[in-house]
Predict the structure.
Amino acid sequence: NSFSFTFSVEVRLPGSRRNVFVKIPKVDMRCTTASIFPITKQDREMAREEESSLRLLGRKWQADDLDVYWVNLCGVLPEYNALVTERIFAHEAFVVFRRLDLRRRLGFARDGKRLQSSMARLGAALGRYHQANCRSSVFSLSEALPKLEFYCREIAASTGSVWPERVLWKLQSMGDMEVAGIEVPTLKGIDIRNVLIDGQDRLYLLDPGRTKITHREADLARFIMTYRILYWGSKLLLLVREPDPKAEAAFLESYYSHSQPSCPQLLNFFLLKEQLKHWHAALDSLNLRKWPYPLKHMVAKVYVNPFYTRQIAAQFKLIVKWNK
Protein backbone atom coordinates (compact mmCIF):
# COMPACT_ATOMS: atom_id res chain seq x y z
CA ASN A 1 0.00 0.00 0.00
CA SER A 2 2.87 2.40 -0.59
CA PHE A 3 1.05 3.57 -3.73
CA SER A 4 -2.56 3.69 -2.57
CA PHE A 5 -5.00 3.57 0.31
CA THR A 6 -7.43 0.67 0.02
CA PHE A 7 -10.33 -0.61 2.10
CA SER A 8 -13.64 -2.43 1.68
CA VAL A 9 -17.11 -1.21 2.64
CA GLU A 10 -20.29 -3.17 3.27
CA VAL A 11 -23.41 -1.14 2.59
CA ARG A 12 -26.50 -2.47 4.32
CA LEU A 13 -29.86 -1.55 2.85
CA PRO A 14 -33.35 -2.77 3.74
CA GLY A 15 -33.43 -6.32 2.45
CA SER A 16 -30.04 -6.26 0.73
CA ARG A 17 -26.31 -5.69 1.07
CA ARG A 18 -23.71 -4.21 -1.27
CA ASN A 19 -19.97 -4.79 -0.95
CA VAL A 20 -17.56 -2.38 -2.59
CA PHE A 21 -13.82 -1.77 -2.59
CA VAL A 22 -12.31 1.71 -2.39
CA LYS A 23 -8.90 2.66 -3.76
CA ILE A 24 -7.26 6.08 -3.39
CA PRO A 25 -4.16 6.20 -5.61
CA LYS A 26 -1.01 7.89 -4.29
CA VAL A 27 2.14 8.40 -6.33
CA ASP A 28 4.61 7.11 -3.72
CA MET A 29 4.39 7.06 0.08
CA ARG A 30 7.52 5.02 0.78
CA CYS A 31 9.52 7.96 2.15
CA THR A 32 6.68 10.08 3.53
CA THR A 33 3.99 9.89 6.17
CA ALA A 34 1.02 7.96 4.82
CA SER A 35 -1.79 10.46 4.37
CA ILE A 36 -4.68 10.86 1.96
CA PHE A 37 -4.34 14.64 2.02
CA PRO A 38 -3.04 16.63 0.37
CA ILE A 39 -4.14 15.11 -2.92
CA THR A 40 -1.52 16.08 -5.48
CA LYS A 41 -1.87 16.68 -9.19
CA GLN A 42 0.04 13.46 -9.80
CA ASP A 43 -2.33 11.52 -7.51
CA ARG A 44 -5.33 12.79 -9.48
CA GLU A 45 -3.67 11.91 -12.76
CA MET A 46 -3.11 8.34 -11.56
CA ALA A 47 -6.77 8.03 -10.58
CA ARG A 48 -7.98 9.46 -13.91
CA GLU A 49 -5.76 7.06 -15.84
CA GLU A 50 -6.98 4.04 -13.90
CA GLU A 51 -10.61 5.12 -14.21
CA SER A 52 -10.15 5.50 -17.97
CA SER A 53 -8.58 2.03 -18.19
CA LEU A 54 -11.39 0.40 -16.18
CA ARG A 55 -14.04 2.03 -18.35
CA LEU A 56 -12.24 0.91 -21.52
CA LEU A 57 -11.96 -2.65 -20.21
CA GLY A 58 -15.63 -2.60 -19.23
CA ARG A 59 -16.47 -1.99 -22.90
CA LYS A 60 -13.78 -4.03 -24.65
CA TRP A 61 -12.86 -7.01 -22.46
CA GLN A 62 -14.79 -10.08 -23.64
CA ALA A 63 -13.74 -13.18 -21.71
CA ASP A 64 -16.75 -14.26 -19.63
CA ASP A 65 -16.69 -17.67 -21.32
CA LEU A 66 -13.12 -18.08 -20.06
CA ASP A 67 -14.09 -17.07 -16.52
CA VAL A 68 -11.56 -14.21 -16.64
CA TYR A 69 -13.00 -10.83 -15.59
CA TRP A 70 -11.89 -7.31 -14.84
CA VAL A 71 -13.34 -5.80 -11.68
CA ASN A 72 -16.39 -3.58 -12.31
CA LEU A 73 -16.05 0.15 -11.71
CA CYS A 74 -19.01 1.48 -9.69
CA GLY A 75 -17.99 5.13 -9.71
CA VAL A 76 -15.57 7.75 -8.40
CA LEU A 77 -15.47 10.16 -5.46
CA PRO A 78 -13.55 13.21 -6.76
CA GLU A 79 -13.36 14.88 -3.34
CA TYR A 80 -11.17 12.04 -2.08
CA ASN A 81 -9.70 11.02 -5.45
CA ALA A 82 -11.26 7.60 -4.82
CA LEU A 83 -12.19 4.79 -7.20
CA VAL A 84 -15.04 2.53 -6.09
CA THR A 85 -15.30 -0.98 -7.55
CA GLU A 86 -17.29 -4.08 -6.81
CA ARG A 87 -15.63 -6.13 -4.07
CA ILE A 88 -14.40 -9.55 -5.16
CA PHE A 89 -14.46 -12.33 -2.57
CA ALA A 90 -11.51 -14.44 -3.65
CA HIS A 91 -7.89 -15.28 -2.88
CA GLU A 92 -4.71 -13.69 -4.21
CA ALA A 93 -3.76 -15.76 -7.24
CA PHE A 94 -0.02 -15.61 -6.64
CA VAL A 95 -0.49 -17.33 -3.26
CA VAL A 96 -2.67 -20.05 -4.81
CA PHE A 97 -0.33 -20.43 -7.82
CA ARG A 98 2.68 -20.75 -5.52
CA ARG A 99 0.94 -23.53 -3.57
CA LEU A 100 -0.04 -25.32 -6.79
CA ASP A 101 3.53 -25.11 -8.07
CA LEU A 102 4.94 -26.48 -4.82
CA ARG A 103 2.49 -29.39 -4.87
CA ARG A 104 3.41 -30.06 -8.51
CA ARG A 105 7.03 -30.39 -7.43
CA LEU A 106 5.94 -32.98 -4.86
CA GLY A 107 4.33 -35.11 -7.55
CA PHE A 108 0.74 -33.85 -7.54
CA ALA A 109 0.32 -33.61 -11.32
CA ARG A 110 -3.28 -32.43 -11.04
CA ASP A 111 -2.15 -29.23 -9.33
CA GLY A 112 0.37 -28.59 -12.09
CA LYS A 113 -2.41 -28.96 -14.67
CA ARG A 114 -4.61 -26.57 -12.72
CA LEU A 115 -1.84 -23.97 -12.71
CA GLN A 116 -1.32 -24.41 -16.45
CA SER A 117 -5.06 -24.11 -17.10
CA SER A 118 -5.33 -20.85 -15.14
CA MET A 119 -2.35 -19.34 -16.93
CA ALA A 120 -3.71 -20.50 -20.29
CA ARG A 121 -7.06 -18.79 -19.66
CA LEU A 122 -5.31 -15.57 -18.69
CA GLY A 123 -3.27 -15.72 -21.90
CA ALA A 124 -6.32 -16.42 -24.05
CA ALA A 125 -8.28 -13.54 -22.51
CA LEU A 126 -5.43 -11.06 -22.99
CA GLY A 127 -4.84 -12.26 -26.56
CA ARG A 128 -8.50 -11.82 -27.41
CA TYR A 129 -8.51 -8.27 -25.99
CA HIS A 130 -5.35 -7.31 -27.89
CA GLN A 131 -6.51 -8.84 -31.14
CA ALA A 132 -9.74 -6.80 -31.08
CA ASN A 133 -7.85 -3.53 -30.55
CA CYS A 134 -4.65 -3.79 -32.61
CA ARG A 135 -2.83 -2.01 -35.41
CA SER A 136 0.38 -2.66 -37.33
CA SER A 137 3.45 -0.71 -36.32
CA VAL A 138 7.25 -0.74 -36.56
CA PHE A 139 9.39 -1.12 -33.46
CA SER A 140 12.58 0.95 -33.49
CA LEU A 141 15.26 -0.04 -30.97
CA SER A 142 16.88 3.40 -31.11
CA GLU A 143 13.78 4.96 -29.56
CA ALA A 144 13.85 2.53 -26.64
CA LEU A 145 17.60 2.73 -25.94
CA PRO A 146 17.68 5.79 -23.61
CA LYS A 147 15.55 4.10 -20.96
CA LEU A 148 17.58 0.90 -21.22
CA GLU A 149 20.82 2.85 -20.93
CA PHE A 150 19.49 4.43 -17.72
CA TYR A 151 18.64 1.05 -16.16
CA CYS A 152 21.96 -0.52 -17.19
CA ARG A 153 24.13 2.28 -15.85
CA GLU A 154 22.21 2.57 -12.57
CA ILE A 155 22.38 -1.19 -11.94
CA ALA A 156 26.07 -1.39 -12.89
CA ALA A 157 26.92 1.46 -10.51
CA SER A 158 24.96 -0.14 -7.68
CA THR A 159 26.06 -3.77 -8.09
CA GLY A 160 29.36 -3.80 -9.94
CA SER A 161 27.93 -6.52 -12.17
CA VAL A 162 29.38 -6.83 -15.67
CA TRP A 163 26.03 -7.87 -17.15
CA PRO A 164 24.40 -4.43 -17.51
CA GLU A 165 27.35 -3.09 -19.49
CA ARG A 166 27.51 -6.25 -21.58
CA VAL A 167 23.81 -5.94 -22.39
CA LEU A 168 24.13 -2.24 -23.14
CA TRP A 169 27.03 -2.77 -25.52
CA LYS A 170 25.08 -5.40 -27.45
CA LEU A 171 21.94 -3.26 -27.66
CA GLN A 172 23.91 -0.23 -28.82
CA SER A 173 25.46 -2.34 -31.57
CA MET A 174 21.91 -3.19 -32.70
CA GLY A 175 20.73 0.42 -32.48
CA ASP A 176 19.39 0.65 -36.03
CA MET A 177 17.21 -2.46 -35.62
CA GLU A 178 13.60 -2.14 -36.77
CA VAL A 179 11.01 -4.91 -36.47
CA ALA A 180 7.46 -5.09 -37.79
CA GLY A 181 5.11 -5.47 -34.85
CA ILE A 182 1.62 -4.86 -33.51
CA GLU A 183 0.52 -2.05 -31.22
CA VAL A 184 -2.34 -2.47 -28.73
CA PRO A 185 -3.71 -0.63 -25.68
CA THR A 186 -1.34 -2.11 -23.09
CA LEU A 187 -2.00 -2.00 -19.35
CA LYS A 188 0.74 -0.79 -17.01
CA GLY A 189 -0.81 -2.79 -14.16
CA ILE A 190 -0.96 -6.19 -15.85
CA ASP A 191 0.59 -8.19 -13.03
CA ILE A 192 0.00 -11.59 -11.48
CA ARG A 193 -0.09 -9.87 -8.08
CA ASN A 194 -3.22 -8.04 -9.27
CA VAL A 195 -5.14 -11.27 -9.97
CA LEU A 196 -7.64 -12.95 -7.64
CA ILE A 197 -8.95 -16.52 -7.93
CA ASP A 198 -12.08 -17.89 -6.27
CA GLY A 199 -13.15 -21.37 -5.25
CA GLN A 200 -14.47 -22.13 -8.76
CA ASP A 201 -11.17 -21.03 -10.36
CA ARG A 202 -12.75 -17.86 -11.73
CA LEU A 203 -10.06 -15.22 -12.26
CA TYR A 204 -10.51 -11.51 -11.52
CA LEU A 205 -8.05 -8.79 -12.52
CA LEU A 206 -7.58 -5.56 -10.56
CA ASP A 207 -5.65 -2.30 -10.84
CA PRO A 208 -5.04 -1.97 -14.60
CA GLY A 209 -3.11 1.27 -14.17
CA ARG A 210 -2.54 3.50 -17.18
CA THR A 211 -3.42 2.41 -20.70
CA LYS A 212 -0.64 3.04 -23.20
CA ILE A 213 -0.62 2.32 -26.93
CA THR A 214 2.55 0.36 -27.57
CA HIS A 215 3.69 -3.07 -28.71
CA ARG A 216 1.75 -6.00 -27.28
CA GLU A 217 4.95 -7.64 -26.05
CA ALA A 218 5.11 -4.97 -23.31
CA ASP A 219 2.05 -6.56 -21.66
CA LEU A 220 3.33 -10.07 -22.21
CA ALA A 221 6.69 -9.26 -20.64
CA ARG A 222 5.08 -7.52 -17.66
CA PHE A 223 2.89 -10.49 -16.88
CA ILE A 224 5.53 -13.14 -17.53
CA MET A 225 8.06 -11.43 -15.28
CA THR A 226 5.59 -11.17 -12.41
CA TYR A 227 4.93 -14.89 -12.86
CA ARG A 228 8.65 -15.64 -12.78
CA ILE A 229 8.97 -13.84 -9.44
CA LEU A 230 6.14 -15.92 -7.95
CA TYR A 231 8.44 -16.79 -5.03
CA TRP A 232 9.72 -13.24 -4.56
CA GLY A 233 9.68 -12.21 -0.90
CA SER A 234 9.92 -15.86 0.19
CA LYS A 235 12.94 -17.82 1.39
CA LEU A 236 11.86 -20.46 -1.13
CA LEU A 237 13.29 -18.26 -3.91
CA LEU A 238 16.77 -19.40 -2.91
CA LEU A 239 15.75 -23.03 -3.50
CA VAL A 240 13.13 -23.19 -6.27
CA ARG A 241 13.93 -19.97 -8.17
CA GLU A 242 11.27 -19.81 -10.94
CA PRO A 243 7.89 -21.58 -11.09
CA ASP A 244 6.83 -24.16 -13.69
CA PRO A 245 7.92 -23.05 -17.20
CA LYS A 246 5.11 -25.16 -18.67
CA ALA A 247 2.55 -22.77 -17.19
CA GLU A 248 4.38 -19.81 -18.74
CA ALA A 249 4.42 -21.65 -22.07
CA ALA A 250 0.68 -22.35 -21.73
CA PHE A 251 0.06 -18.63 -21.17
CA LEU A 252 1.95 -17.69 -24.35
CA GLU A 253 0.51 -20.50 -26.47
CA SER A 254 -3.04 -19.53 -25.54
CA TYR A 255 -2.30 -15.85 -26.07
CA TYR A 256 -1.06 -16.39 -29.62
CA SER A 257 -3.92 -18.77 -30.42
CA HIS A 258 -6.23 -15.75 -29.94
CA SER A 259 -3.91 -13.18 -31.50
CA GLN A 260 -1.65 -12.70 -34.51
CA PRO A 261 1.54 -14.81 -34.88
CA SER A 262 4.35 -14.35 -32.39
CA CYS A 263 7.43 -12.17 -32.86
CA PRO A 264 10.19 -13.78 -30.75
CA GLN A 265 12.61 -10.91 -31.38
CA LEU A 266 10.26 -8.36 -29.82
CA LEU A 267 9.26 -10.59 -26.92
CA ASN A 268 12.92 -11.27 -26.10
CA PHE A 269 13.66 -7.55 -26.14
CA PHE A 270 10.70 -6.58 -23.94
CA LEU A 271 11.48 -9.38 -21.50
CA LEU A 272 15.04 -8.06 -21.19
CA LYS A 273 13.72 -4.54 -20.63
CA GLU A 274 11.33 -5.78 -17.95
CA GLN A 275 14.10 -7.74 -16.21
CA LEU A 276 16.28 -4.63 -16.05
CA LYS A 277 13.33 -2.59 -14.80
CA HIS A 278 12.55 -5.17 -12.08
CA TRP A 279 16.20 -5.38 -11.01
CA HIS A 280 16.43 -1.60 -10.76
CA ALA A 281 13.16 -1.40 -8.80
CA ALA A 282 14.25 -4.18 -6.41
CA LEU A 283 17.52 -2.40 -5.64
CA ASP A 284 15.68 0.90 -5.18
CA SER A 285 13.17 -0.66 -2.76
CA LEU A 286 15.97 -2.35 -0.85
CA ASN A 287 17.86 0.94 -0.57
CA LEU A 288 14.77 2.65 0.92
CA ARG A 289 14.43 0.09 3.71
CA LYS A 290 15.57 1.25 7.14
CA TRP A 291 17.95 -1.67 7.56
CA PRO A 292 21.64 -1.57 8.51
CA TYR A 293 23.90 -1.32 5.48
CA PRO A 294 25.54 -4.75 6.02
CA LEU A 295 22.11 -6.42 5.98
CA LYS A 296 21.04 -4.60 2.79
CA HIS A 297 24.36 -5.49 1.16
CA MET A 298 23.91 -9.17 2.06
CA VAL A 299 20.30 -9.29 0.75
CA ALA A 300 21.39 -7.69 -2.54
CA LYS A 301 24.34 -10.07 -2.92
CA VAL A 302 22.59 -13.29 -1.93
CA TYR A 303 18.96 -12.72 -2.93
CA VAL A 304 18.40 -9.92 -5.45
CA ASN A 305 21.43 -9.84 -7.75
CA PRO A 306 21.84 -13.61 -8.40
CA PHE A 307 18.18 -13.95 -9.43
CA TYR A 308 18.26 -11.15 -11.98
CA THR A 309 21.73 -12.05 -13.21
CA ARG A 310 20.40 -15.51 -14.13
CA GLN A 311 17.35 -14.04 -15.82
CA ILE A 312 19.30 -11.49 -17.85
CA ALA A 313 22.10 -13.90 -18.81
CA ALA A 314 19.54 -16.35 -20.25
CA GLN A 315 17.66 -13.58 -22.06
CA PHE A 316 20.87 -12.10 -23.41
CA LYS A 317 21.79 -15.44 -25.02
CA LEU A 318 18.43 -15.56 -26.80
CA ILE A 319 18.87 -12.01 -28.12
CA VAL A 320 22.37 -12.77 -29.38
CA LYS A 321 21.08 -15.94 -31.04
CA TRP A 322 18.31 -14.08 -32.88
CA ASN A 323 20.62 -11.32 -34.07
CA LYS A 324 23.61 -13.23 -35.40
Summary: The chain is about 50% helix and 20% strand.
